[in-house]
Write a structure and sequence with these properties.
- The protein is built from ten helices and no strands.
- By secondary structure, it is mostly helical.
- The protein is globular.
Length: about 200
């Protein structure tokens, strides 16, 4: 039984990996179930057995992405306001290195009317809500009255919008300011420094 369950998990993972690559490269509506089956090395029927539609695959990709980020061994805030910036910096670094395809898929899903926001479980934390909570803690530490003109949830949404847009549109954005597309990955640390400075304005 364990072997059969493990095989099913590996097959699902292979299907989602193939779907992620194809969706990011070609768009969600341009990829067929047969395309995904061929890329995953499984039968068309098996893909339909585990994921009946492309929308279900997008939901699976979103869940896997959130699970992977939330299970990463990040340090916890130290409660004094001293550890939070490093926590955020490490989370941003991990995110930038791993979610370029994911950012493209979310953008394509929104443009295709798939509504990926409806695939989120409001009862479960996400990297975005985790960042909002960390920013809220930093605001409390730095402001004796506990007040800030910036809502930490909106700050987190803005930061994620910037990073998602950068990841999905890096070639165009870099070229539009006279840099090369390759500069994006070479300048991760600089992008994170700018992001941290923007977060600092809200603290």
């Amino acid at each position: 039984m364990y072997t059969r369950t493990r095989d099913a998990e590996l097959t699902k993972s292979a299907i989602l990996d193939a779907a992620r690559r194809l969706f990011a490269k070609k768009g969600i509506t341009s990829v067929s179930i047969r395309d995904i089956a061929a890329a995953a090395g499984v039968s068309h029927g098996l893909v339909q057995q585990y994921f009946g539609t492309r929308e279900q695959m997008v939901a699976g990709i979103i869940k896997c992405e959130i699970d992977a980020v939330m299970s990463a061994p990040f340090p916890m805030p130290d409660g004094t306001g001293g550890g939070e910036p490093e926590l955020i910096r490490r989370q941003l670094r991990e995110g930038m290195e791993g979610f370029k395809d994911f950012a493209s898929i979310i953008m394509r899903a929104e443009l295709d009317g798939i509504e990926p926001e409806k695939m989120l479980n409001p009862d479960l934390p996400t990297p975005t809500t985790h960042l909002a909570s960390t920013i809220a803690g930093m605001q409390e530490q730095s402001r004796p009255d506990g007040r800030s003109p910036f809502n930490p949830k909106m700050v987190s949404a803005y930061v994620n919008a910037a990073l998602f847009g950068f990841a999905a549109l890096a070639p165009w954005l870099m070229t539009s300011v006279g840099l090369t597309p390759e500069d994006y990955e070479k300048r991760y640390d600089e992008i994170i420094d700018i992001t941290m400075a923007l977060i600092g304005l809200a603290i």
